[in-house]
Amino acid sequence: MNSIQKKILTLSAIVLFIMVLIWVVLIYYNQKTQDQYNRILQRYLQMNEVTATSNRMVTALNNYLQDPSQLHLGELNESKRRLQEAQGQISRLQNGGNAFTLTNYVNLIDSFVESTNRSVKSADEKNNEDSLNYFTEATRFSNYISDTTLTLLDKELKTYDQFYRGIIEQSEELKKLGLWMLALITVLLLVFTYWFSLSITRPIQKLTMAAKELSRGRFDLEIEVPSNDEISFLAKTFDRMRININNLISEIQQKAQLESELQKNKLLLQESQLRSLQSQINPHFLFNTLDTLSKKAYLEGSEETSDLLASVAGLLRYNLKRLDRSVSLYDEVKVILQYIDIQKARFTDRLRFVQETDRSCFHVQLPGLTLQPIIENAVIHAVEPLEEGGSITFRVRDGEDAVIVEIEDNGVGMPEDKIRNILEERVPVAEGHSTGIGFSNVVRRLRLFYGRDDVIDIRSELGRGTKVILKLPKERGIGYDAQAVNRG
Amino acid sequence: MRKLVILLVSALCVVLFYFTLSSFIKVFHYDLTVPAQSGGTPPRYRLVLITQELDTPFWNKVGTGALQAAKQNGAGLEVWGSYGKNREDFLKKIEIAIASHVDGIIVQGLEEEEFNRLTTVKAAEKGIPVITVANDVPMEESLRRTYVGSDHYKAGQMIGRRLLSDMGTAGHVVLMGSNREEDYQRRRISGILDILKAYPNIRTEVVTAGETREEVVQKTNEIMNKEPNVDAFIAVAANNAGAMIQEIDKRAKVEKYHVYSFDDSPETLRLLKLGKIDALIEQSPDRMGELSVKLMIQWLKGESFPLDYNGYFTDIRMLRAEDLR
Q1: What range does the domain containing B194 cover?
Q2: Average pLDDT, stretch B106-113?
Q3: Does A101 touch chain B (CB under 8 A)?
Q4: Distance from C-alpha of B206 to C-alpha of B227, rounded to nearest angstrom
Q5: For A195, which of A222, B206, B260, B296 is 20 to 30 Å away at the CA?
């Protein structure tokens, strides 16, 4: 059943019960008093009945003596019967106070009846004198009966005096009781109703407050309504709704964050593509020209120039096509070597390149053009500014579950804050003349590709050199495939 | 504020509850059992004590004694009677008692034909025993079972002897009696006369007056006019003593007369204290009531049968003025 309904029903039931109870008690007492009054009245009436009947009987006797007809005898007998009936009733009215008088009374009636009988008998025997005497006696007895009735009534009043007073006082007291009870019940009901209505409205108030808070946008306040009815249920549901909304909001926030990251990624790619496009001025023409130059140099006997031109063309081609897909370490290493060839042509002996590679690791996949920018960076910082040049060591070795690629130079080293800038992927200050793709671009792409942050580490000592360590996992983690990114 | 309101409301509740509860207790406390239900078996014997002189000190005492005895013996007793010697009423009461078939009637004797008829014919017919108390009636005429009361003849003798010792063997004595022929009065007078007749020098005169004060006063006047040398007055009927002494006092110093009376009523006792009465006979009314009831019950139970027809005498005592002073 409905709980609030139950509460209301309970209240009504209690009120009803109290009212019925009072009603029953009052009715009961009223009835009792009424019965008592009736009984008392009955006594008086019965006593009076005796007097009246005895008087009637005297009249009947007189009539009979005057005119001894059957009719009058019938009347006489009728009144006699009624007198004896009344006598029987009277004898039941005995109590402690009137036992003596009542017995006298009953006997007196007997004597009266006897005198009457004798009078009738004497009259029947035509003994008029005796008949008259007995008639006189009967009349006297009738008077005595009246007297005794009065005495009895008097005694009755005396005996019942306390009782009557009791009844009067009780009814008086009952009236007072009624008033007091009315007052008490009124106050109690008012208090109870107030308390009861509070038990309904207070949860609603709390709920209202909670709703207000929610509408203001505060989703973190718990809604608590201590009650056991529907309001509590409502509050619980409301609370669940609040939690759900809260969860949804945080989910949306997370998604938005991801979205913004993706957006950033896309921008980075576009940037690199743009850069590469800028350098792509009619690539076929450039390739063909470079090829032609290379052949011509070869024909003119300048083989070295020819090789150099071929390397430049290869690097360019790689640069243009490998940017948006993953490549094997082998391909990357090849490009590095071509790039080193080109740079060696420029720096000659100033650039010393040491290669320590484990060829068994060359199958590892990695995003295109990730190693070349790092090597380029090393060339720019470790070789170019120094007159005596520098050495770059390139190592590939097998870690346990990753391939470790190290690029070490012996240049001036990198300041701490710069390393931090790179590792935290902040936009670097453009410096030098790279092929276009910045160090942080590489870091970013590597992390996205493998889906982990520890893929790159930079160690540097000022004046002693810099070491960039890449840990390329053999199994690719959850990350963003460059292709997927490209499509987005 | 809230606390104050709560406090006030609860205080109000408590007060109202207290009044309601006390009222409730009061209402339910009333013991409204109808007396009829409190029962009471009718007494085994219903006796009535009937007198002509209700509410006189003497008869009140008789009544008290009788009621006590009745209570002790488990009998019911009511004192009926007439006020101020109303004979008609008195006889009516006797007739009611007989018609009511009471078990026993204890009655103040009255010498009258109707009284005798009621006691002999009516009561005997119904088999109701009658005992006379304080005043006797001749047994032959009334068929009473017995008499309980003072021996009036002896009382008369005591007064006579007392008179002799106070007055000496010579003098003029007036015996003031009632004009109603009462047995007790006759006995008292004969008691006195029996003592005094041995002394020829004592002249006695029996005077009867009516019941009322005026009649007594008139009679006293008359006798004092006629006989100025009276030495002693004896009020044979005690009710006459007051009026008589008052009248004597008006004419001469009452102290010089020898005045005697019977019955110790408050009036005579006062006069005795004042020394206006020399001596009076004190009876034992409560003993009379008590004894009469006891004898009646004994007779009804058949314990003492037959009763002494001559009667059972209760104590009498001479009260002298000098004893009270």
Answers
A1: 152-283
A2: 87
A3: yes
A4: 13
A5: A222
Please tell me whether residues B271 and B173 are part of one structural domain. yes
Cα(A311)–Cα(A303) distance, integer angstroms: 12
Q: Which residues of A touch B92 (CB under 8 A)?
A: 140, 144
Residue A432: give the domain boundaries. Answer: 325-487
The model's pLDDT over B113-160, given as tens digits with 9 standing for 90+, comes to 888 888 888 888 888 999 999 888 877 777 788 899 889 999 999 999
Chain B nearest C-alpha distance from A98 (Å): 9
**Number of domains chain B is built from:** 2
| Whether the predicted pLDDT of A286 surpasses 80 | no
Q: What is the pLDDT of residues B44-89, one digit of tens each?
A: 888 999 998 888 888 999 999 999 999 888 888 899 989 888 888 9
CB contacts, 8 Å: A102 with chain B: 42
Residues A315 and B48: their CA atoms lie apart, in Å, by 160
Give the domain-ending residue among A179, A206, A233: A206
Instruction: Judge if B240 and B301 occupy the same domain.
Output: no
3-state secondary structure of A216: coil
Note the pLDDT tens digit of each residue in B202-212. 988 888 888 78
Predicted confidence at residue A146, as pLDDT, reads 92
Q: How far is CA A131 from CA A57, A79, A117, B172, in A?
A: 15, 19, 10, 58
Chain B residue numbers with beta carbons less than 8 Å from the beta carbon of A181 are 20
Q: Does A154 touch chain B (CB under 8 A)?
A: no
Q: Note the pLDDT of residue A481.
A: 46
Cβ–Cβ under 8 Å, residues A435 and A372: yes
- Cα B211 to Cα A304, B179, B217, distances in angstroms: 192, 8, 11
Does the residue A296 lie in any domain? no
What is the Cα–Cα distance from A198 to A193, expressed in whole angstroms? 8
In a domain, A319, yes or no: no
DSSP label of A222: P
- For chain A, the average pLDDT equals 83
Residue A24 predicted with pLDDT over 60: yes
User: Distance, in angstroms, between A245 CA and closest chain B CA?
Assistant: 39
Decide which of A376 and A451 is more confident: A376
Cβ proximity of B239 and B208 under 8 Å: no
Q: Which of left, alpha, beta for A103 (phi over 0: left; psi -120 to 50: alpha)?
A: alpha
**B chain contacts of residue A184, beta-carbon cutoff 8 Å:** 13, 16-17, 19-20
Q: What is the ipTM of this complex?
A: 0.78
**Residue ending a domain, choose from A183, A206, A229:** A206
Q: In the predicted model, what is the mean pLDDT of residues A128-134?
A: 89
pLDDT digits (tens, 9 = 90+) for B263-277: 777 888 888 888 888
Q: Which residue among A99, A176, A177 places its CB closest to the CB of B40?
A: A99
| CATH number of domain containing B174 | 3.40.50.2300
> Within this chain, do residues B122 and B231 fall inside the same structural domain, yes or no?
no
* Position B29 in a domain: no
In a domain, A294, yes or no: no
Tokens of B126: 């119904």
> What's the pTM?
0.60
In a domain, A465, yes or no: yes
B298 and B253 housed in the same domain? no
Please state whether beta strands B317-320 and B279-282 pair in parallel, antiparallel, or not at all (unpaired).
antiparallel
Compare CB distances from B99 to A39, A108, A166 and report the shortest one's residue. A108
Number of domains composing chain A: 2
Among B12, B20, B40, the residue with its CB nearest the CB of A95 is: B40
* Partner B contacted by A169 (CB < 8 A): yes
CATH of the domain at A201: 1.20.120.1730
**A329 lies in the same domain as A201:** no
> Is the same domain home to B166 and B272?
yes
Q: Residue A478 pLDDT more than 60?
A: no
Q: Is residue B261 part of a domain?
A: yes
User: Is residue A472 predicted with pLDDT exceeding 60?
Assistant: yes
Closest residue in A to B44 (Cα–Cα): A100
pLDDT score of A480: 46
For B227, the 3-state DSSP assignment is coil
